[in-house]
Amino acid sequence: MAKNYDALAKTIIKDVGGKDNVISVVHCTTRLRFKLKDEKKANDDALKDTDGVVTVVKAGGQYQVVIGNEVADVYEAVLKEGGFSGGGQVADDDLDDSNMSLMDKAIDLISGIFTPILGPMAAAGMIKGLTAMCASFGWLAKTSGTYEVLYAIGDGFFYFLPLILAITSAKKFKVDRFTAITIGAAMCYPAMVAMNSSKKVLFDLFNGTFLHSQVHATFLGIPIISMNYTSTVIPIILAVWFASVVEKWCKEWIPTVVKTFLVPFVTLLIVVPLTFLIIGPLATWIGNALAAITSAVYNFSPVLAGILLGGFWQVFVIFGVHWGFVAVMMSNIAALGYDPILGLSLGASFAQIGVVLAILLQTKDQKLKGIALPAFLSGIFGVTEPAIYGVTLPRKKPFILSCIAAGVGGGLIGFFGTKMYMMGGMGVFVIPAAIGPKTGVDMSVYGLMIAMAVSFVLGFILQMALGKKSVDQAYDEKQAKAVQEVASQADAIAKAAPSLASTSDLNVSTELVSPLAGELLPLSEVKDEVFSSGAMGEGVAVEPSEGVLHAPADGKVVMTFPTGHAIGMKTSDGAEILMHIGMDTVNLQGHGFETLVAKGDEVKAGDELVKFDIDAIHAKGYVVTTPIVVTNSKDYEKITVVSQGKVKVGQEILDLEGASETEAASSNPQMA
């Protein structure tokens, strides 16, 4: 059965400042990425405490709500709830990026261009890599039709990458999409590609340098510096940016009646020739320069480069600057046919999940276990945001240990000389991307697998040996605080209750009936150690099916709370009872609760005490499991649960065995 995310979507929209505060919202693998008019209106703490939200990150001019593996479903619910149109985009005429730093703007630009294509690009890379692997092992002949079709699926995306980037760049630079596609198509046009390998050479430029280029033809007498723009990144992005400038100028000067065709006509006639004459060659040389610089850094010491990039990769991810390395990788592949840099980071996800697995075994916190298990599984496939933001980073030391393990893995990858020949999948799916078209599966590929395994094992060992104390530190503090809070409640009940002035060691035997309709549970199954451990007294719990709490016996209300989440009673027979609706529901500050009695009221068994909205409490991410605890359990010889399964209001659930009425009366004249 599909899970309903409407309540979560409603909460997220409210806590990012409401619909009117949202400029746009998109999503990546694990995050909802909002652009907000005013980030100060967002309630960070409320979002972080919401069940279904891992954490909140502010980076690259975006307000990012980390959801995890269910982000696509939550995104659809957010679009529906917010009424956002255009694939999650709302009007952005009032977008003010003046408060964004230059770095934020660069990250926003790169991520905006590459994020939409990551899925298909990774898929194409996996198909291309797997096809190369099959050919390397002799499972497919390179001359077979099967190989040709599969390779076309994988390589076609990268060959026509300028056309694909033209679409995302057009959206980012606000250019007509089809005008941008036409520019990309011209750059990949077969005759222009063939010109680059023509035997007719007019003259050469920059002989003996990485900028060496040939001139094979002219445009209106101006030399065309020949470049092959298939699979390139920087030239099309700069060309579309230039088109945005020209198109804007055209819209201002061309009459409205002929804008429909004259704006793209003039734009294309100016942009495409200038792309072949100036923009393309300059962009290609920039790409070649980046490739030369990164190769020089790598060649200085592949191991040192691996240690540094592997160790800091997760930090780069947190701040969003890893997008810069993605752009460099695509540029290197276009210039060199491979990239030696980005592959150095591939041990990081395995170091992260090694630490997470250790935490999963170490923690006592059931909520953390619930986050850690799916984070571990998604991390196997390279999606580490749930592991970083939900598990390791909040505990600091585990995150540092994962960075150390990732650094060791990166050093090994550098040692084995692993290179990336395409943008592949993530996690284990990235391995085919390291298979060279000519070298096949060699030691660099096996070295990558060894480095991944070492990163995982080392992360696990480091966390087991050095990180245990940091795992449940916050949880233990919260439990201690909760114990103190409930102890204070129990103590207050005892002080507020009228004394029976009994000289007997035991209270009189009595019974309690169910204050709720629902499913009876052992107190040990309550997901809060304060209650499940029996530290506050013996009792039972009910998972309510109806939102009304009743009196479990005749007696007096000795404590109420402004938040309505708990009631303290002392029965006519001396039993001190604490009924606590849900776990941590005090945080709701009374929302969803209505207290029907006041301190000092005399009540009869079955009288209504509190009304509560089960659906509203669940929507806020809280459970309504209700412990019924006898806080003066020491005054009874034995407390027995006498029912099980479904119970009704008024049905006996607890038998409190103490002194007989005769014994109690003889020792206490007030009861005679």
Automatic annotation (TrEMBL):
Pfam families: PTS_EIIA_1, PTS_EIIB, PTS_EIIC
Species the sequence originates in: Lactobacillus paragasseri
Protein name (database record): PTS system sucrose-specific EIIBCA component
Source lineage: Bacteria, Bacillati, Bacillota, Bacilli, Lactobacillales
GO cellular component: plasma membrane
InterPro entries: Dup_hybrid_motif, Glu_permease_IIB, PTrfase_EIIB_Cys, PTS_EIIA_1_perm, PTS_EIIC, PTS_EIIC_1, PTS_IIABC_b_glu, PTS_IIB_1
Membrane-topology annotation of the record: Multi-pass membrane protein
Active-site residues, as the UniProt record annotates them: 28 (phosphocysteine intermediate)
Function recorded in the entry: The phosphoenolpyruvate-dependent sugar phosphotransferase system (sugar PTS), a major carbohydrate active transport system, catalyzes the phosphorylation of incoming sugar substrates concomitantly with their translocation across the cell membrane. This system is involved in sucrose transport.
Gene3D superfamilies linked to this entry: Glucose Permease (Domain IIA) (2.70.70.10), Glucose permease domain IIB (3.30.1360.60)
